Amino acid sequence: xxxxxxxxxxxxxxxxxxxxxxxxxxxxxxxxxxxxxxxxxxxxxxxxxxxxxxxxxxxxxxxxxxxxxxxxxxxxxxxxxxxxxxxxxxxxxxxxxxxxxxxxxxxxxxxxxxxxxxxxxxxxxxxxxxxxxxxxxxxxxxxxxxxxxxxxxxxxxxxxxxxxxxxxxxxxxxxxxxxx
Length: 180
What we know:
Blueprint: E1 17-18, E2 24-25, E3 30-31, E4 37-38, E5 50-53, E6 58-61, E7 74-80, E8 86-94, E9 111-115, E10 134-136, E11 141-147, E12 160-172, E13 175-178
Parallel strand pairs: 5-7
Antiparallel strand pairs: 1-2, 3-4, 6-12, 7-11, 8-10, 8-12, 9-11, 12-13
């Protein structure tokens, strides 16, 4: 019942929303009472995976980069700023995904997907068909997920990202100004 939502004091994070019973319904990839946890952290296959508290500019990749990644790789990087007005910009420096002997109708054997991204583009194709090189968060976080094809024989590195924080300040309900 919608009238109850005004009585709820819980703050759902990472795209979660308040349900009628004043609990959070978490978006993909998140869990916890306020959607504050990475739901799929247990199967991470690389020590670089997890939450990255973004304060300044930086780089992120698999710990094995620039060498070949493990055959079966699952990793999520949650780039997050404690500044609620921050927007995170990500440059894809290198995709490093398996695009060899791709199944019919597919653009890649590996999947790299951004969640919480401004454009909501879905999986990023490794064949260059959409030429995605930049991502921008819709809020103060962005979740990057890599799922590799465990049956691939290709030796690929996995992605290399650079990121930066842009501080935004609201001026009006519908207008935002960039303070960078």
